[in-house]
Amino acid sequence: MTTTRAGIEPVFCTIVPPHVLDKLSQAEDPALSGPARRTLERDARERTHRRMTTVVGAPAVAAPKEAAEGKPHRTIHDAKHRTELPGRKVREEGGKPGKDATVNRAYAGLGATFELFLKAFARDSIDGRGLALTATVHYDVDYANAFWNGEQMVFGDGDREVFLDFTIPVDVIGHELAHGVTQYTANLAYFGQSGALNESLSDVFGSLIKQYALGQSAEAADWLIGAGLLAERINGKALRSMKEPGTAYDDPLLGKDPQPSTMDGYVRTGRDNGGVHINSGIPNHAFYLVAMALGGNAWERAGQIWYDTLTGGNLEVDADFEAFAQASVAAASARYGEGEEHEAVLKAWSRVGVTTLQTE
């Protein structure tokens, strides 16, 4: 069985929030509402399947013997618009690019994720032990989502009316694989504030993967999650903004981005596992503030602090925002002392209203 902390098994995590698909499913045009409804139904079935799998136990996916330490081992499959996983194998590690751009993007995105964790954090794949990375593309028909199911990545092609191919933004690929890193480390429960932290950590590392791949500093980065995913007809720039939560989109079909940037806007809801995709805007913004205060490459100091917090063993599976904030302050102090890194983390959490910690 897949190893996790405290007996909590991996969960089914999607990139597009349910509230977005719910809104879209109400559109009068069946070309818009139909794919959204089918995606919601498919997500519900996959979520149920994930829960059933964890009852009987899922086999751990191990790196093959021939995979060298510190080297990725990627396999891309094609579902051929069906839902059986993993589908037909179409590209393995070291294989040359083919004519299918979706396959090539998935392969490259898995590699970019592997490289960021290895080069920036000395982590060998998402489990730290060379886990083979598996992805499936062309999943289902007009499937408007991408997900990590505890064992592999899955990408839909989108409906081409609202959502384009989900392999286009590398941060979407990184976001979903980062759920695997959380699964193998703190394994934060996917509900309420711990679930929002789970989502936020995937946004943080997804953004860092994009920045690392592009060689961008914190100042040069757009801090958007899913830029390039929305079709031209949509009034929006991405799924989420870490710089300005609540501003990623404002469109009649999708509604307005509901993410708050501070605790003053915290949303209490029973939907979306207690608003995990909504309230993640608060810790997202805290990380953005730390990265901007420290400047330079965000994966270096700011990213290192968040990585240390996630992997340091000091988070309970049901950790709330304040617990994570305290752990990140301790992580900054442990690695960098009481200098500007420590101060930046203190100030960021105070600015988003999570803590009232003050620097001396």
Feature tags:
Neutral Protease, domain 2; globular; Elastase, domain 1; 10 helices; two-stranded antiparallel sheet
Class from helix and strand fractions: alpha+beta
Measured as a percent range, the helix fraction is 40-55%
Order of helices and strands: EHHEEHEEEHHEEEEHHHHH
Terminal CA distance reads: 48 Å
Q: What portion of the residues fall into strands of 2 or more residues?
A: 5-15%
- What is the CATH architecture term of the largest domain? Roll
CATH topology of the largest domain: Elastase, domain 1
Overall number of strands = 10
CATH class of the largest domain: Alpha Beta
Biggest β-sheet: strands ordered side by side in the sheet: 1-5-6-4-2-3
Mean pLDDT: 92
Given the structure, what is the number of helices?
10
The residue ranges in which pLDDT falls below 50 over 5 or more consecutive positions are 1-8, 53-67
The total number of structural domains is 2
The shape is globular
Summarize the biggest pleated sheet. 6 strands, mixed
Using the CA coordinates, give the radius of gyration: 19 Å
Care to describe what's here?
There is one protein chain. The chain is an alpha+beta fold and about 350 residues long. It has two domains: about 5-185, Elastase, domain 1, CATH 3.10.170.10; about 190-350, Orthogonal Bundle (Neutral Protease, domain 2). The chain has ten helices and ten strands. It has helices spanning about 20-25, 30-55, 100-120, 170-185, 190-215, 270-275, 280-295, 300-310, 320-335, 340-350; strands spanning about 15, 75-80, 90, 135, 145-150, 155, 225, 240, 250, 255. The strands form three sheets. Strands 1-5-6-4-2-3 form a six-stranded mixed sheet, covered by helices on one side. It has a two-stranded antiparallel sheet with strand order 7-8. A two-stranded antiparallel sheet has the order 9-10. Helix 3 (about 100-120) packs across helix 4, helix 5 (about 190-215) packs parallel to helix 7 and helix 9 (about 320-335) packs antiparallel against helix 10. The longest helix has 27 residues, at about 30-55. It is globular and about 55 Å long. The N and C termini lie far apart (about 50 Å).
